[in-house]
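Hi P.,

Sorry for the delay on this. The queue was packed all week, but I finally got your sequence through. Input first:
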Amino acid sequence: MISADQALKIVLENVAALGVERIPILDALGRVVAENISSSRDIPGFDNSAMDGYAVRAADLAKASEASPVKLAVVETVGAGQMPTRRISAGQAVRTMTGAPIAEGADAIIPVERTRGSGDTIEFLAVAEKAAFIRPRGEDLRLGELVMSAGKTLTPADLGMLASVNRAMVEVVRRPRVANRCHRR
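Then the structure:
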């Protein structure tokens, strides 16, 4: 008689690896990843606004307050999915929606709640701190950063992560196939 540990050792020494197959990520839920996966890009891929507001130069608002607002000219509106076309100069701002890229020349976002007015000139009621409300490029993932290791069973969140790093296909461990041979006589 042999122990359970000895039996397991014998089985594992005599079982062939299942192999690997490449499948679409949409078919990969519950499958085991057979490769290490690294990010193919920085995520986010650009500095972007953490909230709706205005991209500004912090220096322009160094003395802004509710009692003494600073007026800036709004030179562009940038929504999520759009790229800014203007560079911010002194005395200018770009209306910027959550997730939208930050206009060149800007170094802060002022939330819309800290402004007054509408149209082409806005009053700013608060000082802007450099980098305030800006999500920097690569904050979530850096190019080449390990996203997941071989051996992980894929969850719905993992499939979302694979999509975010531009993976349409993934290498997974083949599923075992069980055959049942019945002979009729």
